[in-house]
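pasting for ref
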Amino acid sequence: MADLTITAANVIAQGGASKSNADAGEAITAGEALAKDSSGDLVLASDASATLAAVVGISLNEGAAGQPIDYHTGGDINMGATLAVGKHYCLSTDGAIAPVDDIAGSEFPTYIGYAISTSILRVQILRATVAAAGAVS
């Protein structure tokens, strides 16, 4: 499996979800995993470093640098992608989200959540602080 192929227009927080907002520090699209830069602006999260792997949520709208972004921090979200029920999902690169099976060594495997249906991800972020020594499963 590879990174989720997300249709941004279909990314929707479900009832009871936790949300927050901040300004974009770069161009962001709905459905991307986000981290914050040193100024508190939202940037695309990445498993390449501990700092960028500190996922704060999943973007709910798109925007250019300086524009406001709403983001999903917990609970259920329609990812606008096809999910495998029961599968766990982690941060990949450049805001992407992938099945945990795809995480390899030397990456920071921040856990995003698990699929409760073929479209709904139950978000429960667990931030990575150390690199994986090998494949995560």
